[in-house]
Amino acid sequence: MEVAVLDINGKETGRKANLSDAVFAIEPNDHAVYLDVKQYLANQRQGTHKAKERAEIAGSTRKIKKQKGTGTARAGSIKNPLFKGGGRVFGPRPRSYAQKLNKNVKRLARKSALTLKAKSESIIVIEDFDFDAPKTKNFINVLKALGLDSKKSLFVLGDSNNNVYLSSRNLKTSEVLTSSELSTYKIVNANSIVVFEGALEGIESNLSK
Predict the structure, then answer these.
(1) SS3 of residue 157 by DSSP
(2) In this structure, are residues 4 and 16 in contact, taking their beta carbons and an 8 Å threshold?
(3) Mean pLDDT over each residue of the chain, to the nearest integer
(4) The whole model's pTM is what?
């Protein structure tokens, strides 16, 4: 599959980039995409939630009223979960939500996500560029030139570029990462994928194994 290479102003350079069929034109596996996205979101959870149970509540241990003759249910402790301020029954405890997923499934999921983006013509290839200094305004100008100023976009770099990364950091709808950091969730979550020309080789080498 061939895609026109654009410059920083959104105009065609006259060159074509070849997107490997082994990465951008496979038979998509929706279930693999689901599993990888599910694992990514689960791994983001801190799992630090905690509620005090009956044994952890501070309070008197004396019997709060006599056993019989009150006309109400018997009660032995102010820390009873039925009372206000009492402990919680089977409350949440700190735990890990991390999930494991086979490397081959993760690789298949990323290729499937990229294929779906390629089919919907949501992948843009742009020639490598850099800024003289980190400046959000410069990055916004690039977004406007590509027609992505009102869409969620993901920029994929070949190598880390501090100026481009810092220029995009204040924008909620855009994210910049390198080809080695590419994940299925990031691909699916973006409306358009902007791939630097120098990142194509890294993406294909990582996913063609």
Answers:
(1) strand
(2) yes
(3) 93
(4) 0.84
Residues 6+ away with beta carbon under 8 Å from 18 = 1, 2
How confident is residue 208, by pLDDT bands cut at 50, 70 and 90?
A: confident
pLDDT band at 209 (very low <50, low <70, confident <90, very high): low
Which of 120, 123, 121, 141 lies closest to 131, judged by CA? 141
Superfamily (CATH) of domain 2-45+101-207: Ribosomal protein L4/L1 (3.40.1370.10)
Scan for tokens 């410059």, then name that residue: 7
Q: Provide the residue ranges of all domains of the chain, joining segments of one domain with +.
A: 2-45+101-207, 47-96
Residues 6+ apart with CB under 8 A from 205: none
Residues 6+ apart with CB under 8 A from 146: 6, 10, 124, 126, 153, 192, 194
Q: Cα–Cα distance between 184 and 192 in angstroms, integer?
A: 13
What are the b/e assignments for 62-100, b being 16+ CB within 10 Å?
A: eeeeeeeeeeeeeeebbbbeeeeebbeeeeeeeeeeeee
DSSP label of 150: T
